[in-house]
Amino acid sequence: MKAIVYTQHGLPIDDPQALLDTELPMPLAGPHDLLVEVRAVSVNPVDTKIRLGVAVNEPRVLGWDASGIVRAVGANVTLFAPGDEVFYAGSIVRPGSNSQFQAVDERIVGRKPANLGFAEAAALPLTSITAWELLFDRLRVPEGGGEGKSLLIVGAGGGVGSILTQLARRLTKLTVIGSASRDATREWVTRLGAHHTVDHTRPMQPQLEELGFANVDIVISLTHTDRHYQDIIEALAPQGQLALIDDPATLDAVPLKRKSISLHWELMFTRSMFETADMVCQHELLNRVAAMIEDGALTTTLGEHFGTINAANLRRAHALIESNRAIGKIVLEDF
Question: Subunit structure, per the record (predicted)?
C-alpha cells in the first residue's frame, strides 16, 4: 500500500527527505481493530513535533486524524462492520493515518457524520477529542453549566481552539473569550461562537478589563503557554483553573499558589496509549460530535484543502503548521 513516512528525525520541512512516499505491507487487524481504507487525513502540530524530535530506526507513518471506510474487522469487534464510514484520531504508539490502510482500535473510532464528506470529517477527530476532554474531563465543566463564569481560550483560531470555541458555546453557559492576533483569525473565532476576542500579542489583562472582566475563571492555553504564562496568571481569578495542551520547555507551578490556581494537562492519546478502562469514551464522544454536526450545532473546522495525500503536499502542510499561521485544519484527500 502507499504510505508517507519519515526515516530521519530533525530534518527541516523544506528538505525533500523530511517526508517520503513509499510502499508498505498491508496492516493486519488485531482482535479489537478495524482495518480502515483511509480516504482523508488532516495534519496537527503533533505530526511536526514527532517528525522533528523523535528518532526512528525504521520508516514511521505519521498522521493522527482520518476518515475512511471499514474494510475488515477483528474477531472481537462489536461496534462496527465492513462498509461503515468512520472518523478517528488513532493512537500515538501505533502507525499513523498517512497510508492507504490503517488498523485502529474500534474503541477510539466514531461514525462519520452523514452530512460531511471525508475531507470535512477528517478535520475533526483529534481536536474534538482534545477539546471535549479539556472541558468535561479535565476541567469538569458540567454540560449546560458554567453560568456566570468566563473562559479565555489562548489560541482560539487553531485546530483545537476552533472546535473548543464551538463546544463551549453550544454545550455550556460559559462566556467565551477567544484570543486571536489577526483580523482573519478574529473573524473566524467570532463566527464559531466566541462572545469576545482579545489579541494575545499584546498584554491580555488590560484588554479583558476593557471588555468588563476584572479576571477570568478558566484559561485554556493551546499554544506558547510559556510565552503567555505570566499574562495568564494575571488574568486568572483567585481559585481559577488553568488547562494546557502544548509542551513548554519548563513550567514553574509555584506562581499559581498565591491564587490557588489549579493546573490541568490534556493529552488525548492517554486513553489509547494506556488502554484505560474508559477508552471507549472516545468512541462515544465522537458519536456525540457526529450527531451535533448532523443537527447543525457544530461545523467542520476545515481551513484549507491541500489536495492528494502524498509527501509533497504533506510537506506543505507541515510547513504551514510550523509557521503558526494556520486557521482551522489542513486536510488532504485520497491517494
Answer: Homotetramer.
Report the predicted TM-score, pTM, of the whole model to 2 decimal places.
0.94
| Structural domain total, the chain | 2
pLDDT at position 328 is 80
Mean pLDDT of 193-198: 97
20 within a domain of the structure (yes/no): yes
Q: At what angle do helices 125-132 and 281-295 cross, to 10 degrees?
A: 110
Last residue of a domain, one of 230, 265, 300: 265
| Residue 309 maps to a domain | yes
